[in-house]
Specification:
The complex is a heterodimer of chains A (155) and B (110). Chain A is α+β, with helices and mostly antiparallel strands and 155 residues long. Chain A is 32% helix and 26% strand. The mean pLDDT of chain A is 91. The chains are: A alpha+beta (155), B alpha/beta (110).
Chain lengths: 155, 110
């Protein structure tokens, strides 16, 4: 799904921020919290789970790739609720993502896999995020990497 | 992640409970690899009590399936919750794994 333009700079209705140690054991905690919030917005159970998956994938990427598994760093997850959209930011201060990886990520590459030997074990995370979200952008500023995911809320 | 094990004839049924994700996938992967080393390669994963799975865990399941297939075995998935099934479908892995409603249907498919 391609990126959409959203009107910006009104204040969010609600905002919350989580900061966790960069340990994979914490992604579940963040994921379950995001799911619960999404279910109250309300997104459907399936949609809430898909959004949870996106956040888990993004946090996993920060821990595994940006921090190379170092558990002593921090990952920040911010949720900003607007009338028409939910913005999810996943922020780390590790090695930046190669922008090409996000650009090229596409679930369609998993559509026509002939047999089990041709099925990749890894590399679905960013593709899932791009497929589920209405907009996905990545920006590095002042040593902070921010993956911003935007999900529209049906009116 | 908890695993309870049962047998149906020569089939190993692993009943999983909890979240299957990057931090827990290794538990399941290690158990399946241990079974494969004993040439126990007919495996059912009952995931009725799994309420979340991420792409790391799915990658581990792909690795396990590849491994048991090489020994003429298979891994069948059983009792997916709707939300977990949605993730299998999103990632296209419902095309790779055979998915059944219950253990009996899965065991009859070997």
């Amino acid at each position: 799904m391609g990126n959409k333009t959203f009107d910006k700079e009104e204040n969010p209705i609600k905002k919350i921020r989580f900061i966790v140690d960069s340990d994979l054991k914490n992604t579940g905690l963040i994921g379950m919290s995001v799911n619960k919030i999404c279910s109250q917005i309300p997104f459907s159970s399936i949609e809430s789970c898909r959004i949870e998956l996106c956040v888990v994938e993004a946090v996993n990427n920060s821990i595994i790739h940006a921090y190379n598994g170092d558990k002593r760093r921090k990952v920040e997850v911010g949720l900003s609720l607007f009338k028409d959209r939910l913005i999810l930011d996943v922020i780390d201060t590790g090695s930046p993502l190669d922008p090409d990886r996000l650009k090229k990520a596409n679930l369609a590459m998993f559509d026509n896999l002939a047999d089990i030997d041709s099925v990749p074990e890894n590399g679905r995370g960013l593709a899932v995020i791009k497929d589920v979200m209405d907009s996905t952008t990545y920006k590095t500023t002042g040593g902070k990497n921010r993956l911003r995911m935007i999900k529209k809320i049906a009116s | 992640m908890e695993i309870v094990e049962e047998k149906i004839n020569d089939i190993d049924v692993l009943i999983l409970k909890g979240r299957l994700e990057a931090s827990t996938a290794k538990i399941v992967r290690d158990r399946i690899n241990a079974l494969a080393k004993q040439n126990r390669v007919k495996i059912i994963l009952n995931m009725g009590a799994v309420d979340f799975i991420d792409s790391s865990a799915l990658g581990s399941l792909v690795s396990c399936l590849r491994s048991v297939n090489k020994s003429d075995g298979d891994i069948k998935i059983v009792s997916l919750q709707d939300r977990v099934r949605a993730i299998f479908e999103l990632t296209r892995l419902h095309r790779i794994f055979q998915i059944f409603d219950d253990n009996v249907a899965a065991s009859n498919s070997f």
